[in-house]
Amino acid sequence: MAKVDPLWAILSQPAKRFRNWDLEEFLRTGEAEISTLMESAKQTGLPRQHGYAIDFGCGVGRLTRALYNYFPQCHGVDISASMLDMARKLAPDCTFQHAGDLSCFADGCADLVYSSMVLQHQPDRKHVAGLIADMIRVLAPGGLLVFQMPLHLPWRNRLQLRRRAYRLLRAFGLGHAFTYERLKLNPIRMLSLPESEVESIVNAAGGTVLRVEHTSKFSAPFVSGLYFCTKS
Predict the structure, then answer these.
(1) What CA–CA distances, in Å, run from 231 to 56, 64, 102, 170?
(2) pLDDT tens digit sequence for 91-114
């Protein structure tokens, strides 16, 4: 997806599929999202410092470049090398790491850790719990962690038949471009976790959930929790 339709892989609006995102419009969504984030963060009184921010699952740097308006050191992390190639061009003042976790960051280094539309696409719940713990580990005292996760998916959506069909056809040797563009299938998975389970994960990792916003902005038509956390 990163090579065939990277912007839609990040913001999967139906009308923008098949490379129909205008780049400037796409980047403006990042500026709006981070502006809203920082306004919401004021209600928590955190982060106390605005020096160092991490955008986990940064993709092409849509949010990382917007965070640079608030933090002089912004670091994006993503598992896709081709996404990061584009990110480095779009946000040359930021630093990008090719990784699937935060092991390259020191304990307590980040004033803000933000992760939007990333945890919901992990392989399983164990990976989600591990990443939340990792984000709390790198959080500085007085820092703020904000991440999003769908609260519930109906059974028909948990089956993800189109994703399973995509994987099956790819296993039989059909190319990605054909399965995506001709058959309109894609490999994107979707997970959910109930709010009580997320709070237990945060607490077990040494964090505290300060507040939770319920929104369908990141996972329409499904409702997500937007969790504002800090270290205990």
Answers:
(1) 18, 23, 16, 43
(2) 999 999 999 999 999 999 999 999
